[in-house]
Design a protein that fits this description.
With about 150 residues, the chain is an alpha+beta fold. It has two helices and eight strands.
Length: about 150
C-alpha cells in the first residue's frame, strides 16, 4: 500500500509533451480528412458531369434517329434545334442557352452547367458536341444507312 502513496502525479513537462503529440496527430488527421473530402468532391463533380453528358447524348441520339430533318436557329444567347419527322409530324425542340448554361428539351431542362452544345447536320451523319465545365468535350456521331 505504501507504493501508491509515494506517487506525486504528472509533471508539467509530461503534460506539455502529451498535448504536443495529441495536437500533431490531430493536425495530421484533419489534413488527411480534408484532402480526402476535396478528392471525393472533385470525383463526384466529374461523375455528375459525365452522367449529365451521357444522358444528353442518349436523349438527343434517340430523338435524332426518329427525325428526318434538323433546323438550327441562332438567337441572341440561345440556339434552338428543331428535330422533326415529316412522316408522323413529331417534333423535338432543343434549346441551349449560354447565359444560364442549360439544355432544354421541349421546355424541360435536361442538363445544367453545359458550356457548349451543338447538333451539326452533315447530311450523311449528325454530330452532337457537348462541352462541360471541366472543358472535357463529349461527342457522338450518328451515321445514317441507306435502305428501305
Amino acid at each position: 500500500m505504501s507504493k501508491f502513496h509515494n506517487e506525486r502525479g504528472m509533471t508539467l513537462l509530461e503534460v506539455l509533451a502529451v498535448t504536443v503529440i495529441v495536437t500533431l496527430v490531430s493536425i495530421i488527421l484533419m489534413s488527411i480528412l480534408t484532402n480526402g473530402k476535396t478528392s471525393s468532391d472533385k470525383q463526384m463533380k466529374s461523375s455528375v458531369q459525365l452522367s449529365d453528358a451521357t444522358y444528353i447524348l442518349k436523349v438527343v441520339t434517340k430523338d435524332t434517329r426518329k427525325s428526318t430533318k434538323i433546323i438550327t436557329k441562332d438567337l441572341d444567347d440561345c440556339t434552338e434545334y428543331i428535330l422533326s419527322n415529316n412522316q408522323n409530324n413529331q417534333k423535338y425542340n432543343y434549346n441551349f442557352c449560354r447565359n444560364n448554361q442549360t439544355v432544354e428539351r421541349d421546355n424541360e431542362i435536361i442538363a445544367v452547367n453545359v458550356l457548349d452544345f451543338k447538333i451539326k447536320d452533315k447530311r450523311s451523319h449528325i454530330i452532337i458536341d457537348i462541352t462541360m465545365p471541366n472543358n472535357k468535350p463529349f461527342s457522338s456521331t450518328i451515321y445514317f444507312r441507306g435502305g428501305s
